[in-house]
Amino acid sequence: MGVVHHAAYVPWLEEGRTELLRTSGVSYRQLESAGVFLAVVKLEAAYKRPGRYDDLVEVRTRVVGATRVKLRHEYEVRLVERAGVSEGEMVGLQRAGLDLLVTASTTLACLDGAGKPSELPGWIAGGGGGGG
Question: Which one, of 100, 3, 8, lies nearest residue 52 by Cα?
């Protein structure tokens, strides 16, 4: 069909979370080495327009909430470049909001090394919005 399979977006969201964490100065590997594991317990996605093979996309990720144990992210997957679409046409799509392919949200639970719920480290639970 020439369109991105719906499941392909899930790893892109993970990449967005990983890069957002990295911008805070910590890699996911460092987080796990400290005994902090984040597991997706809820995922919601709304598919607005189809992505196509070889599209260049941008995943915008932000933290929108936290409890003692859970962390919530929201995402936008936006089209940046598509074969056969001129730069001027892309600007028009962006201005009209037609570059938005998917909106999504995830809830992650903090787990310890034994897989039991654990309190989020304060520096994560305390915020750190931004985009990534």
Answer: 3
Structural class in CATH, domain 6-122? alpha beta
Q: How many residues does the chain have?
A: 132
Q: What is the pLDDT of residues 96-120, one digit of tens each?
A: 999 999 999 999 999 999 999 999 9
- Which residues on adjacent β-strands are paired with residue 72? 65, 107
Q: How confident is the model at residue 51 (pLDDT cuts 50, 70, 90)?
A: very high
Q: What is the 3-state secondary structure (H, E, C) of 15-52?
A: HHHHHHHHHCCCCHHHHHHCCCEEEEEEEEEEECCCCE
Task: Tell me the Ramachandran region of residue 130: left when phi exceeds 0, alpha when psi lies from -120 to 50, beta otherwise.
Answer: left
| pTM for this entry | 0.88
What contacts 129, CB < 8 A, 6 or more positions away?
62, 63, 64
